[in-house]
Amino acid sequence: MPLGEWLHGVFAFIPESYALNIRTYAICILIGIVVAGVMTHRRLTNRGAEPGIMLDIIIWAIPLGIVGARIFHVLTHPNDYFGEGINPLSVFYVWEGGIAIFGALIGGAIGAWIGCWRTGIRFWTFADAVAPGLLLAQAFGRFGNWFNHELFGLPVSSDFPLGLEIESSNIAYPPGLPEGTLFQPTFLYEVVWNSIGVVVILLAERAFRLQWGKTLAVYLIWYGLGRTVFESIRIDPSEYFIGLRVNVWAALIAIALGIAIIYVQSKRHPGTEPSPYVTGREWVPIATGVDSEETYSDTGNVAETTSEELTSTSATSGAASSEKVTKP
Q1: Whole-number Å distance between alpha carbons of 63 and 66
Q2: What pLDDT shows up at residue 22?
Q3: Which of 59, 172, 217, 306 has its CA 20 to 30 A from that of 38?
Q4: Which N-terminal stretch is annotated as signal sequence (predicted)?
Q5: In this structure, is residue 179 part of a structural domain?
Q6: Are the beta carbons of 53 and 44 closer than 8 angstroms?
């Protein structure tokens, strides 16, 4: 079956009005994932991890991140999915929109922990490696919000240079405002903020030699600070808790968590990480002796092989020495 027909069948059950938005938004997210993956791969291998091991971790992190993103959105927008006259199956209608980055971070962290546990990579090492890539991925994802005309902010005057025009039929369009009203492009602000944040994280990491999760902590603080501002001027429907949008509270928690990680990890691990792997599960490149190729082996096997080689060498040398002595 041609690829075009297969894709048509996949999207056939999705209403036509959502199909284009899904594909455009999905492309933006996929580009972000690829860019973040390449960046994380390079950062992990530079720390001494086995090439390609990042794939063994994100195969858990990405699916659980998507699930977490949906669950967080549903829980923070309960009136959209539960109540009289609402189809409970709409919880699964992802094509109608509704994923949350904070849920993605929680689900993704759980998936990354599972992947790290299975591969032997230190969780904090992976967290530090992925941190700047996360901001890049989020920046690309926000372009999807532009295509969908969603997550915009308060109205602005007609001479505002970055004013965004939204169609009055948009579900988040404030009632009573005239057609042609311009709004704050909060997603664009976040694109710029996240892009600058990548540079800040990399510079801070180099200047302070951040390890043991402290690079991730800088990410949480930076993103949390920006999100508290952008979230405060958004006007799309949201749940409120003690006078603040739920996502503002989530951003404040992210900031607090980042500060806590820096404090706790600085006390627990004042030195540098000895290896990207947990003790006893290290992998090191060893020469095979054939065409100067390299392979990777568990250190325990390396030690065993080395011991056998030394024993064999010693025995050979001893035999040779004995032969020289006994000859007349």
Answers
A1: 5
A2: 56
A3: 217
A4: none
A5: no
A6: yes
Helix and strand tally (H, E) in the chain?
A: 9, 7
Rg over alpha carbons for the chain, rounded to the nearest Å, is 26
pLDDT of the residue at 326: 38
Distances (CA, A) of 104 to 120, 170, 228, 254, 281: 23, 26, 17, 13, 29
Q: Are strands 244-245 and 283-287 parallel, antiparallel or unpaired?
A: unpaired
- Terminal alpha carbon distance of the chain: 83
Q: Enumerate the β-bridge partners of residue 298.
A: 283
With both helix axes pointing from N to C terminus, report the angle between 123-148 and 214-232 in degrees, rounded to the nearest 10. 20
Long-range CB pairs of 166-175 (<8 Å, 24+ gap) are: 171/237, 172/235, 172/236, 172/237, 174/235
Residues 59 and 207 in one domain: yes
Tell me if 142 is assigned to a ligand binding site: yes
- Over range 217-225, report the average pLDDT: 98
Mean per-residue pLDDT over the chain, rounded: 83
In this prediction, residue 286 carries a pLDDT of 67
Distance CA 141, CA 31 (A): 8
Cα separation values, 42 from 54, 169, 274, Å: 9, 45, 18
Count of positions (residues) in the chain: 328
Q: Which domain holds residue 316?
A: 284-326
β-pair partners for 296? 285
7 occurs within a structural domain = no
DSSP E strands in the chain: the ranges are 155-156, 164-165, 182-183, 240-241, 244-245, 283-287, 294-298
263 and 314 within one domain: no
4 vs 87, residue with greater confidence:
87
Task: Write out pLDDT tens, residues 145-176.
Answer: 888 788 899 999 999 999 999 999 888 899 98
Q: Is residue 238 within 8 Å of 79, Cβ to Cβ? A: no
Flag whether pLDDT at 65 surpasses 70: yes
Whether 15 has a pLDDT exceeding 90, the answer reads: no
Give the C-alpha separation, 244 to 236, whole Å. Answer: 14
Cβ-contact 189, 145 below 8 angstroms = no
